[in-house]
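Listing S7. Sequence submitted for prediction.
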Amino acid sequence: VTDNILKGSKHWQSAYDDLSFLLGIDLATDPKMDNTGRAYFLMRITGQVQALFYMDSPMEFPHQLTPNNWADQGISIGFFKVHPSGKYVLVGVMQYGNENFNIYKFDRDGEFQPLLVDPAIQYRSIVFKNEDEFYLISNDRKTQTLIKYTISTGKVDTVYTEPGWFGPDDYQDGKLILTRWLSFSESQLFVLDEETRKAKDITKVGLYYGGLFTSDGKVLTYTDALSTKEEFAKFALIDLKKPKKLKFLYDPKMEVDDFAFIPRAQIVMAAMNKDGYSELLAFDLWGKLVKVPQPEIGVVTNVSANDYGDIVFDFSSPRIPPTFYHFRLGWEKVQQMVAISTFGFDFSN
């Protein structure tokens, strides 16, 4: 009788559809947050491919941005980059797994348009200059070229090229920080002047995991250049007035799986690998530790932050399927953003 009454309700079908959707979520990953507090992430419903979603508050109903028919066309998402203003998102997509990523722009209201589409070109490594312009790499499998794209005009400017694999990490005041990869274990940082388009090496060859500008124009990097063979990599600062001279910043004394930098707060947020599980670590540009909340025992990946100290990160554990969490600097606890279905299994013990 109860079953018949429920199914006879005018709300039955909409409630059934919504619950079927929510209870079919088996993955929410790769979170990024803009300066308005909107979180973007990739989410998968069981039996489907990942799509790009967003939410403005924890545990609200996820809103889908990318279209469902992309799956029918063999189109999948390789990466996405959120503009800090929150006005749009750039999405790198590929068809049939060819890894030749095209770039689509999705506005905040869900309208979208292709910006860079070429079946023979791989576009990657997006760095914003401002709201209308961004830099990225164009790779035709023979030559890699740094280009600048202007959204308002659709103009593509060729900026710089060199042999081998390289890509931009950050932009500030007419300068680009780029990483040159010589092998999987050797890299080098260099600066490109936007006006003269001349490159200048700022480190020796070593192992550098990218470079990010601080608010005073220095460069933050994570490197093994200050470590012995028995030590883990360390964080360091580079003064562009004295390139190739590293200033020690902080030694985590364990492996760093991922890190983000919050320029306005001058704080580095890192996920540390402690015996296979993760701990969050934060410190300022003077090497002073900053207290941050910790998730329960599990694994943290894909740490990201906006300019105002909102941090999001992927998390999974023996009890919690892959989802993501959020906290703001100064908080004492982390909050789960998306509930992932356990499909009836009880993992509490």
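Caption to Listing S7: primary sequence and predicted structure tokens for the chain studied. The chain is about 5% helix and 50% strand. The chain has a mean pLDDT of 96.
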